[in-house]
Design a protein that fits this description.
- This protein has five helices and six strands; from the N terminus they run αβαββαβαββα.
- The protein is an alpha/beta fold and 178 residues long.
- Strands 1, 2, 3, 4, 5 and 6 form a six-stranded parallel β-sheet that branches.
- It starts with a helix and ends in a 6-residue tail after the last helix.
Length: 178
């Protein structure tokens, strides 16, 4: 039985890692106008972020996507869009667990608008808590201006994601579709 649990745990880890495959960036982080930061534990949030990233590229804009743990200075950024899930009882997912320590050490040269999209389940008391935490962190940081309030998506709802996208499109005069 012990061998089975070790093997199944290892198999689940590999399955998660395959699901969170890296997206290839066409642009350097310092050339991109739109930065997409992703915090995900299982990879589901990555799917939404990649769809949004591809839609921006299809509109002829320069975009860059990376994990929240890879946050750094972005020389040409006009906007940062954060897609993050909440893990456990309100904690950061694995690809965002260092963000709170990195953010205060990085100064952005330009004023940057930001939006935070949280993914979670209403079944949990700490529904989208980490997305709320990221929003608070960005509000306190110099040079960040909130574009949209935190938007929460229950159970990976594509309909809710489309609602957020419509709000984002209205604020940017874009017409992105995913």
């Amino acid at each position: 039985a012990l061998f089975f649990f070790i093997y199944s745990g290892f198999a689940m880890t590999l399955k998660r890692r395959n699901k969170t495959k890296k997206t290839k960036n066409k642009f350097n982080k310092d050339d991109a106008e739109y930065i997409i930061l992703v915090g995900s534990e299982t990879g589901n949030t990555n799917d939404f972020a990649r769809s949004f990233f591809n839609a921006i590229l299809e509109n002829g804009k320069k975009a860059y996507i990376t994990e929240l743990n890879n946050y750094s200075n972005f020389s040409s950024a006009k906007e940062i869009i954060v897609f993050t899930s909440t893990y456990g009882e309100g904690e950061a997912p694995i690809s965002a667990n260092k963000f709170d320590k990195i953010l205060p050490t990085v100064h952005q040269n330009l004023e940057i608008q930001y939006s935070v999209v949280g993914f979670g389940s209403l079944l949990y008391e700490a529904y989208c808590k980490y997305a709320e935490d990221v929003d608070v962190m960005l509000k306190k940081h110099d040079n960040f201006v909130e574009k949209l309030p935190v938007f929460k998506i229950n159970n990976q709802s594509f309909e809710a994601f489309k609602t957020w996208l419509e709000s984002w499109n209205a604020k940017t005069d874009f017409n992105l579709t995913v």
